Amino acid sequence: MIRSIVRGFGSALPKRVVTNREMESMVDTTDEWIVQRTGIRQRYIAGEGETSASLGEAAARAALDNAGLTPDDIDLIIVATSTPDNTFPATAVNIQSRLGMKHGAAFDMQAVCTGFVYAVTTADAYIRGGLARRVLVIGAETFSRILDWNDRTTCVLFGDGAGALVLEAGEGEGASNDRGVLTAHLRSDGSHKDKLYVDGGPSSTGTVGHLRMEGREVFKHAVGMITDVIVDAFKAVQLPLESIDWLVPHQANVRIIEGSAKKLGIPMEKVVVTVDQHGNTSAASIPLALAAAAGDGRIKKGDLVLLEAMGGGFTWGSVLLRW
User: Fold this and answer.
1) In sequence order, which ranges of the chain are alpha helices (DSSP H)?
2) Integer Cα distance of 98 and 74 in angstroms
3) Can you tell me the distance from the alpha carbon of 214 to that of 56, in angstroms, rounded to the nearest whole number?
4) DSSP annotation string for 77-145
5) Is the peptide bond before 89 cis (omega within 30 degrees of 0)?
6) For 178, which DSSP code?
């Protein structure tokens, strides 16, 4: 049985760090308020010349170096982003060009904060279907460019960055102890669109628009939706939740992360948390967290790792893999 195995990982962050203390000078907020409600202490904000494509390229090169590969070894690039450099072409082909890659294919995926989970699931389908052997999966965002910096309820939450994985076809026995992606579960419900959205677009307003969010409504739905796809993942592979080594959630709000872990009975010692350092980086948050935890040795070969996210749409999903 063909499995999609993680061959390499990488990440990239803008140069500028914006602390909560600096946010206090920009909007009517406090460090105490932000930390208490979100767990965020700082975020990275893209400067001049730093874009989703440039950050995505840097993360991709780091992942390729970690894998011991070059762009010539890659068959497909999938970029999860809600903040592309251009309306078109896709940021993925921009990154493909930056890498000097003239073969294969490249495209973007748009599922907001769940984008990386959707992209990994899609890459896995390509690999298992024999359409690609190695796929570069990137989450890259510059959410600072779509924030209303006068809206203190949203501008303190988000940051910029990129992360990447190289997935490679490998042989498995079809068992839960195989390395690679074991199961994936995707969901969406468009009836919640107005709870988290951007109030602009080429077809509607002809503008980029700004992010708008009903924070309480998002929080209310998040824990239930997230735990649903986590439970489904473990049922699919017939493993107990206790067998998990690491939960790597979308880094939106530490209270959502803690609430989900508590509901599932997963101790926080098994949860990777980077929201305090990065803020909410949307589709980049999971690969950034993976790169941090794998880079410092927490996530090791053979570990059972669960990725989960929820984002605008609403979209949500999970990927269970063995590292």
Assistant:
1) 20-24, 31-38, 52-67, 91-98, 115-128, 152-155, 215-237, 254-264, 275-278, 285-295
2) 14
3) 29
4) EEEE-SS-SSSSS-HHHHHHHHTT--SSEEEEE--GGGHHHHHHHHHHHHHHTTS-SEEEEEEEEEGGG
5) yes
6) S
pLDDT tens digit sequence for 28-77: 999 999 999 999 999 999 999 999 999 999 999 999 999 999 999 999 99
pLDDT, residue 192, reads: 96
Sign of CA dihedral 70, 285, 93, 185: positive
Instruction: Give the single-character DSSP code of 169.
Output: E
Hey, CA dihedral for 283, 134, 105, 49, is it positive or negative? Answer: positive
**Spatial separation of the C-alpha atoms in residues 308 and 286, rounded to whole Å:** 8
Active site residues: 113, 250, 280
46 with 55: CB under 8 angstroms? yes
For residue 11 the two structure tokens come to: 């990440």
Instruction: Go through the chain and tell me how many residues it has.
Output: 323
Pull the structure tokens for residue 323.
């590292």
* Cα torsion through 200, 204, 207, 212, rounded to 10: -10
Pairing of strands 160-171, 2-12: antiparallel
Q: Collect all residues with Cβ–Cβ distance below 8 Å to 55 and sequence separation of at least 6.
A: 12, 13, 14, 46, 140, 142, 160, 161, 162, 284
